[in-house]
Amino acid sequence: MSIKDRILKLVRDPFGVLRNRWTSFSEWIRFGGSRDYSTVEYWKYRHSKYGFDLRGVGDKTKSHEENIRLLEQGRRVFLDVCNTAGVTFPGARVLDIGCGTGFFAEVVRNNGVRDYLGIDIVDTLFEGLRIRCPGYLFERLDVSVEPLHGSYDLILAMDVLQHIVDENKFIFAVRNMISHLAPSGIVIISTHLGPQRRDGFYVVRRPIEEFQRVFAEFTINKPVAYADSFVFSLRRKH
Q1: pLDDT tens-digit profile of 26-83?
Q2: How far is CA 226 from CA 4, 51, 72, 73, 84, in A?
Q3: Is 190 helix (H, G, I), strand (E, B) or coil?
Q4: Local structure of 41: helix, strand or coil
Q5: pTM of the complete model
Q6: Is the pLDDT of residue 8 over 70?
Q7: Cβ neighbours of residue 62 under 8 Å, at least 6 residues apart?
Q8: pLDDT above 90: residue 213
Q9: Measuring CA to CA, which residue among 183, 182, 203, 179 is closest to residue 192?
Q10: Are 177 and 169 in contact (CB under 8 A)?
Q11: Theoretical Cys-Cys bridge with 140: which of 123, 130, 211, 218, CB 3.0 to 4.6 Å?
Q12: Contact 183, 236 (CB under 8 A)
């Protein structure tokens, strides 16, 4: 959010801004840390507090409706990036890391995906997800510390890697993804890019050069911007 947008938001809703800042401060006291944060506890708290309201996985300073508009923009960018990368949804084995409220589960389902596994660090929303997406599988698994299983033609990490703030866990997650990607598979990532810095206690920005380093054997397509994130595809070099 630009400085101008922040000022306008403060003028329109000063009490709301102050309330959000107090909430952020209290969450930092409760869940924050210097090197890492209490990841499971924090996301269980967010998912339990908001449920399928998109503030639980999106920008909690915006309304559910504002987050829907941002995700709809993200959906269009995601599908364009998939199309450019040559993704074929029907018949693909899909792994969705950080499946959250199931937004991208529904996107790929509407595009013909039948073989789908969604994983998340907490299982708070799984009962509702299984009702919304019958036939899809959902599993509690932390990709940053627990090994994956299976092989996948398409791996999605949509707005999740920026929440892995510990660098050792980030490297583990990347290697985890690579080791379970089919030889001709594609990875789609959306994340915050920019000079390396911690934004609050649960978000980190990384430069694209860091992704080029950790995915050294991959070709990375040019990142496409949407909202505060960028979306890009990766495929092994041949």
Answers
A1: 899 999 988 999 999 999 999 999 999 888 888 887 888 988 898 899 999 999 999 9
A2: 19, 24, 10, 7, 16
A3: strand
A4: helix
A5: 0.91
A6: no
A7: 55, 70
A8: yes
A9: 203
A10: no
A11: 123
A12: yes
| ∠ Cα 172 176 178 (to 5°) | 120
Instruction: Give residue-wise pLDDT tens across range 37-46.
Output: 999 999 999 9
Write down the pLDDT at residue 14.
Answer: 61
Residue type, 60: K
158, β-bridge pairs: 190
Which 8-state DSSP code applies to residue 184? E
Whole-number pLDDT of residue 154: 98
Could you tell me how many residues make up the chain? 238
DSSP-based three-state secondary structure for 3: helix
Percent of the chain residues topping a pLDDT of 90: 76
Q: Look up residue 71 and give its amino acid.
A: L
Beta bridge partners of 188: 156, 233
Q: Where are the alpha helices (DSSP H) in the chain?
A: 3-12, 14-31, 39-50, 64-85, 103-110, 126-132, 167-179, 208-214
